[in-house]
């Protein structure tokens, strides 16, 4: 019996989940499914430029597992681009990384950002720089990160 697959940590969900070639009706296209964890691997390795070891650490998988995830993602994206297929981002076994909550002291607007995205420079609502952590937690990622809540499954 194979051991169960570990959850992959994902910091950001994609805003757009479907891409297709222009001018071709959707009904005439084949689809390639890119999982959310493969999308995250592409983001970490290709957009943020992290080495596989650093990216694997962020996703809480081994470097070898990250290598397999990114290889699969590259193959799927290449297949969609070269063969003119639609690319759909959905599914996979992943868990969202915790977020940090911020509050603007001037307009009282609150918002959340995932760990790893840096401290915001200004309030997204009023552009004030008078912002503070709203959850009362200071420092690094330590608070609550070790708790498992189960994977989101397709």
Structural features:
3 helices, 154 residues, 2 domains, alpha/beta
Report on this structure.
With 154 residues, the protein is α/β, with parallel strands linked by helices. The protein has two domains: 8-95, Arc Repressor Mutant, subunit A (Orthogonal Bundle), CATH 1.10.10; 98-133. It has three helices and eight strands, in the order βββαααβββββ. It has helices spanning 36-47, 52-59, 63-83, and strands at residues 8-10, 18-19, 31-34, 86-89, 94-96, 99-104, 110-114, 131-133. The strands form three sheets. The chain has a three-stranded mixed sheet with strand order 2-4-3. A three-stranded antiparallel sheet has the order 7-6-8, with no helix packed on it. The two termini are 22 Å apart.
Please give the structural blueprint.
Blueprint: E1 8-10, E2 18-19, E3 31-34, H1 36-47, H2 52-59, H3 63-83, E4 86-89, E5 94-96, E6 99-104, E7 110-114, E8 131-133
Parallel strand pairs: 1-5, 3-4
Antiparallel strand pairs: 2-4, 6-7, 6-8
């Amino acid at each position: 019996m194979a051991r169960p697959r570990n959850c992959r940590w994902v910091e950001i969900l994609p805003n757009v989940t479907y891409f297709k070639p222009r001018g071709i009706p959707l009904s005439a296209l084949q689809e390639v499914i890119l999982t959310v964890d493969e999308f995250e691997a592409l983001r970490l390795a290709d957009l943020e430029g992290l080495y596989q070891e650093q990216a694997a650490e962020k996703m809480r998988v081994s470097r070898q597992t990250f290598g397999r995830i990114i290889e699969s993602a590259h193959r799927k994206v290449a297949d969609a681009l070269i063969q003119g297929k639609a690319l759909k981002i959905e599914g996979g076994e992943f868990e969202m990384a915790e977020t940090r909550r911020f509050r603007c002291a001037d307009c009282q607007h609150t918002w959340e950002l995932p760990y790893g995205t840096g401290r915001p420079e200004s309030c997204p609502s009023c552009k004030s720089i008078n912002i503070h952590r709203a959850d009362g937690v200071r420092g690094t990622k330590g608070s609550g990160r070790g708790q498992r809540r189960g994977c989101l499954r397709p």
